[in-house]
Amino acid sequence: MEIVEVGTIFYNMWGYDQTNIDWYQVVSKTPKTITVKAIECVNVEDTPTSMTGVTTPISGAFKPNAKPHRRSLRVTPYGIKANAEYGSLSVWDGKPKHYSTYA
Q1: CA nearest 18: which of 62, 43, 51, 41?
Q2: Rounded to the nearest 5°, which phi and psi values hold at 64?
Q3: pLDDT-based confidence at 103, cuts 50/70/90?
Q4: pLDDT in tens, 23-76
Q5: Is 21 within 8 Å of 92 (Cβ atoms)?
Q6: Rounded distance between C-alpha atoms, residue 88 and residue 81, angstroms
Q7: How far apart are CA 71 and CA 83, in angstroms?
């Protein structure tokens, strides 16, 4: 089971007609909650016209004006999750995540 500590990176995959990935890093925690802030990422397109690619987070690179958000933790069959505005936050496994865009 994953252990959530300050510095742990979470991601949220969401969207309709596209796949958005938002990245967050834990800045404080209690036994049942975490406080996260949005962090920057690097997006690499598969090809210039494909509208798909992979994204990875930049640890410690908090987005300008990123506000801390307190989230409840829960254990699921898929690992530790936290509530998000859209869907849920998942602990990042260290692998790039695929995204798609819509033009």
Answers
A1: 51
A2: -55, 140
A3: low
A4: 999 999 998 899 999 999 998 877 777 788 999 999 999 999 999 999 999 989
A5: no
A6: 6
A7: 6
Q: How far is CA 1 from CA 4, 74, 77, in A?
A: 10, 12, 10
Structure token pair of residue 29 = 């925690």
Burial of 58 (0-12, 13-18, 19+ CB in 10 A): middle
Residue type, 46: D
Sorted by sequence, the CB contacts under 8 Å of residue 1 that are 6+ apart come out as 75, 79, 80
User: Which residue type, as a one-letter code, is found at position 27?
Assistant: V
Kindly state the tokens that stand for 100: 């798609």
Q: What are the structure tokens assigned to 95, written together?
A: 């692998």
Residue identified by tokens 């801390």 is 68
Query: Which tokens sit at 30?
Result: 């209690």
Give which of 75, 74, 76, 9 is closest to 36, Cα–Cα.
Answer: 9
Question: 25 near 57, Cβ under 8 Å?
Answer: yes
